[in-house]
Design goal:
The protein has about 270 residues and is of the alpha+beta class. The protein has nine helices and twelve strands.
Length: about 270
């Protein structure tokens, strides 16, 4: 019989979670889950694992619709039969916005709306609460505008910039090295440079352009992705700093002006 800690690990992996996100969903601390799946290190180098109580197992069963017999090794079906189907990525956005002429508008998702968007991206009433506008040259497809949050893409985008994404109809169409807004069940809204490994491993690799070491590359399973938007345009409040050659030209120009003034005074 497979140990209960192994079964819980399998459930965590099945839903593409980590111990922290799994613990949050069932209302316990990540330390509690760590003690069950990893155990506490003992002086002799072994690990002592905590056995989960009835209440914790009940929370897991209810939250994830787990077949109780799976937990105790009496069934190979992890999910209750009526919950076995996993929703796959949709080829079109669940909700779009249109103007009075029937043309699609671009829905704007500001930073303050990010948390609500993860639950409301498929809710017509919620999408209608977000600002929307029309841009005539962005008409070949469905577009959405997201406000950039944080510094993970610094060098390319900055906090507060706006990126315009075109809806990706098939995740297999994601191109290596290009930038996408990815909406996922566990990470919410992220802006990343993507490496597509769906065909080989059913995963996307998410990379940051900021190389200061605080933004590690990581992967997500394709089943986690609920929307993907290919960034085709952006608007920034950041004005580029003058490059060094312009600084030198400015210095030279200043010296010439001052020299001319000096010559006029001497004459």
């Amino acid at each position: 019989m497979v140990a209960i800690d192994v079964k819980i690990k399998e459930i965590i992996d099945f839903f593409s979670l980590n111990n922290h996100s799994f613990a949050k969903k069932i209302g316990v601390t990540s330390t509690t889950i760590d003690s069950i799946t990893t155990g506490r290190l003992q002086p002799d180098g072994s690990r002592k694992r905590t056995k989960p109580g009835y209440d914790l197992l009940e929370r897991i069963i209810d939250e994830f619709s787990i077949d109780p017999e799976y937990l105790f090794g009496k069934s190979n079906d992890l999910l209750k039969r009526e919950k076995q189907e996993i929703k796959t990525y949709g080829g079109i956005p669940q909700v779009i916005a249109v103007n009075q002429e029937g043309h699609e508008n671009i829905v704007y998702v500001p930073i303050k709306a990010r948390a609500g968007y993860l639950d409301g991206y498929g809710d017509t009433e919620y999408i209608e609460t977000l600002p929307s506008f029309n841009m005539p040259h962005l008409s070949n497809g469905t577009f959405r505008c997201f406000e950039v949050q944080g510094n993970s893409m610094v060098r390319t985008f900055f906090d507060g910039d706006l990126v315009f994404g075109k809806y990706v109809e098939d995740l297999n169409d994601i191109k290596d090295g290009r930038i996408y807004v990815i909406i996922s069940k566990n990470d919410g809204i992220v802006l990343k440079r993507i490496i597509n490994r769906i065909e080989e491993r059913s995963k996307l690799i998410l990379k940051s352009d900021n190389k200061d070491g605080n933004y590690p590359t990581y992967t997500i399973n394709s089943e986690e992705v609920v929307e993907a938007w290919y960034v085709t345009m952006f608007a920034s409040k950041q004005m580029p700093e003058p490059v060094d050659v312009y600084d030198r030209l400015h210095d030279l120009e200043t010296k010439i002006v001052l020299l001319e003034e000096e010559l006029r005074r001497n004459n």
